[in-house]
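Morning!

This is the sequence you dropped in the shared folder:
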Amino acid sequence: MEYNYEKLLTIKAAADFLSVLASTLYMWAASGKIPHIRLGRTVRFKMAQLIEFIDNNSVTARETPTPPRKQKNKVRSGVKISKNNKYLDDLLKQVKNDVLNNNQ
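The structure's back. Tokens below.
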């Protein structure tokens, strides 16, 4: 039998290679998202499998860009907040007039 031995990478080395935090890599390994080798309590990675992981998880650019999402109007205290809200404009005018009339 012929064996192809490859140096195994530590969590730190693999995290540096992938530009992610070690905690992220631990989470991916625990969830089975990324191929890994468990040696007792330690986790190791093969470089070839990391490269394959990158290739399998690469996202290519779309030919036509996705249109931007519409922003939802926020609702506070039952009043919709939007750029052109006539109700709020009228309410603010009324409050200003009340304040000005009470100060005179």
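Headline: DSSP finds four helices and five strands in the chain.

More detail when I'm at my desk.
O.
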